[in-house]
Amino acid sequence: MGKPIKIKAKIKGDVAEVKALMPHPMESGVRVDADTGEVVPKHYIEEVVCKHNGNVVNTAFWGTGVSKNPYMAFKFKGAKSGDKLEISWRDNTGDTSVKEITFK
Amino acid sequence: MKLQRRALIKSLFTAAAVLAVPRFVFASRPDAAFDADNADSVVSDLFDGPITESDQIMLKVPDIAENGAVVPVTVSTDLADVEAISVMVENNPTPLVAMFELSPQSVPEISVRIKMGESSKVQTVVKAGGKYYSASKEVKVTIGGCGG
Known about the structure:
Number of strands of chain A: 7
Number of helices of chain A: 0
Radius of gyration of chain A: 16 Å
CATH superfamily of chain B: SoxY domain
Order of helices and strands of chain B: HHHEEEEEEEEE
Number of domains of chain A: 1
CATH architecture of chain B: Sandwich
Radius of gyration of chain B: 18 Å
CATH topology of chain A: Immunoglobulin-like
Number of domains of chain B: 1
CATH architecture of chain A: Sandwich
Number of strands of chain B: 9
Largest interface: A-B, 31 and 36 residues
Largest sheet of chain A: 4 strands, antiparallel
Shape of chain A: elongated
Helix content of chain B: 10-25%
Oligomer: heterodimer
Helix content of chain A: under 10%
CATH class of chain A: Mainly Beta
Order of helices and strands of chain A: EEEEEEE
CATH topology of chain B: Immunoglobulin-like
Mean pLDDT of chain B: 87
CATH class of chain B: Mainly Beta
């Protein structure tokens, strides 16, 4: 299980503004470890799925070029207080992390 | 002879179907495009139509990135029926950085932080109403970020 996702979400009018921070090394597979002199293997998030009340609103496909501890922000319409928001990721090793929040 | 031809035609159709599906429905990650080591391959892998430059796309990225390991990018657009937003860094070892598929419920505005190995053109391609539009910007990197 990957590290927990941090989500900040608020509703303005009927638009939900979501910010998510996902602690993850995001190793590109080209970085050389300064101590061992060996190339650190690729280890990165490939896919992030964001659901509003169970419906997918945003799917992000990522390569190795997304920064370490990825941050993403997005917006969607039709959200109201009490609605659920679920964000999950899967990395190239098959590891996953899921977080669900309820809009205030 | 006839049977062989039929089998051949059938296999051609199957191959065409297999090739066509990932282009129109991005239900799964376009792995080949993410592995491609040059921007031209990414474009030909990912976009099955002409790309038009559009001033209705706002690509917000710094002119000078002091730390290439963390470069904030925000893409928003006034275009209608946005289906996907992709972000590419031309000079990165693998230029395709991210691709966001948006449902009709989405507001077409996304932010993400990316790595840049060196100064490069940053390009975004927006798929809207089945067509492709782009915007790009040159970003100067003082310390490269692909090693870290």
